[in-house]
Amino acid sequence: MRVLMVCVFLLVYIDVSAQAKRDLLASNFTRKKISTVIDRSQSWRPFPAYQEREVWESLPKGLREHTIQQAEQYMGFNWPTVKATQYLEFTRSGDRSQDAGTMGQRRRALFSLAMAELIEGNGRFLDDLVNGVFALCEQTYWGSSAHFYLYGFEGNISNPTTVVPDMDNPIIDLMVGDMGTDLAWVYYFFKEAFDEISPVIANRLKSEIYRKVLTPYYNRNDFWWITGWDEGRVNNWTPWCSYNMLVTILIMEEDPRQKLDGIYKAMQSLDLFINSYPDDGACSEGPGYWSHAGGKMFDFLEILSLFSGGEISIFDHPIIKDMGRYIYRAYISNGNYYLNFADSQLKINHDAGRIFRFGKAIEDETMEQFGAFLLKEQSHGESIRESRLGEALLNLFYLGEWESTPANEPLIAHHYFENLEAFLVRENEGSTDGFYLAAKGGNNNEQHNHNDVGSFMLYYDGYPVFLDVGVGTYTRETFSEHRYSIWTMQSNYHNLPLINGMAQKAGSQFKARDTRFTKSGKYPVFQSDISGAYPPEAEITHWLRSYELVPGKKVTVSDAFELKSRKGEIILHLMTGLPCEVSEPGRVVIKTESADLMLFYDPKQLHFEKETIPISDPRLASNHGDTLYRIAFTYLPNRLKDTITLEIRPL
């Protein structure tokens, strides 16, 4: 029986009923229009054929040599098997990494061998590629054990009713779609070469793509990412999976009527995703998920535009433009720091080519220049970024004149995401020098939610001072009723207060009130009453948190509160990765990458303590190293009404 656990699913889905029903694709492009495009595009060739050697050999020499060298390690590769016990580990211990690790090895080998054979073209990698095709065809399921809930579940998605792959009931998750699309590109490029060895190879590959991907997609509508969950809740799965279905259909499907049905079905799903987005275009899943949300939406629209010769395009619509612009508006510094609320890591390395192409599609010069900046930072042209085959090929052949585009960071002065209730302000527009401040209001039912209403992050000279820790390695608990037992999800491990001994709670009812971003005065100010994010037992009348950045001087964090009673501790928490010590009462020295900062507080009002937090999770350690610190300012008076102020100044 499938029983929806609200505390789980409201973490990760958007309710489209709360947004405008735009239906940008279905309302602008009829089935007849799609049918006309199909009739005209039967010989669609988005990339040069394997046999067009001059094109492949014209790619930069260093890139070709690096790609071939990478693939040579997979010559004679012993394709590892995903064991039943690896799948079982998810339901037994919550570990989803074992089957994912083996599939990762298979995916990387397939990618490297295919790219090297395309570039070298003398058949040296074909046998190993055929071995990979057969190994994957023999595999029952190309997806993740963490997604067995698509078979059905009891209580919540961490308790699936089927715990190993069922070949008689194929399901389509993110990874099934990814692998199906990669194998469709392998079929597209190498069918003739495979046929010279034996026609059985390509026929088997086509059969397995249909059995595992296309046939269940055509026949089923009960996968939530197709039509939404309950009243239409969706998230990044919808554009991600729909993109995979679209590409696989365009490559593999030969029946025009079936192709039409499949394309239109995918378009309707993407409409559902676009409908779900607020007008500010903000990705509530965080910038780490943008590549799979707004970014995957772009991938879908780009392929649809390429297939139709530009006739099916909605890149001129404001919501599409703002969904793209989100990623540079959320950018902080150094090529990989972003406004990492929700399940985002501290450092994110985005596909620079996608950002550049998205910028060109919406004719946004700032986004194009940001893409060019990242392409330069990532040394594009020297190697191929490991990704999906189609995405890598788009970056090889569809980046146009990126090298002649000025490479600039989008170091914007300030921005306010009105629907997300998140603001940012930079001390010096166009520079990482000085302070960068960001904060949010919102609610504790956002996608990939953390209990972080009112939290903030502070950077100085482009590096984090007070940070959002981000998210650790996903386990079964991450998307279960136990999510908020994970410390990184809790408000006490964000830059937030504990009030009357109580932390924030999860749920849409726990939200900010009267959130405002004003820039009518001399300096931008952000304020939000965060009292509603705490349970009623916290006895809060109001808790108005305010942030202000005064260029060249200071950042101020202020809490003006009134309580109904005092029955527990009040502690202001700050998370940092930097050494910090009290130099004298009322002053804390924080040593940043480039300078020392001084945090001023009232020692008669607050008592300073610092807790060392060892980091063992590999995902967190890759961002923070082995240690983080939690500063705790305990409020000393017994007042019901007061104002607490922290000031951070450069020394």
From TrEMBL:
- Per its UniProt entry, which superkingdom is the organism in? Bacteria
- The residues covered by the Heparinase II/III-like C-terminal domain are 437-605
Location in the cell reads: Cell envelope
What Gene Ontology molecular function terms does this protein carry? lyase activity
> What Pfam families does this protein map onto?
Hepar_II_III_C
Major subcellular location class: other
Could you name the Gene Ontology cellular component terms for this entry? Answer: cell envelope
Q: What's the protein called, per UniProt?
A: Heparinase II/III-like C-terminal domain-containing protein
Q: Which organism is it from?
A: Lunatimonas lonarensis
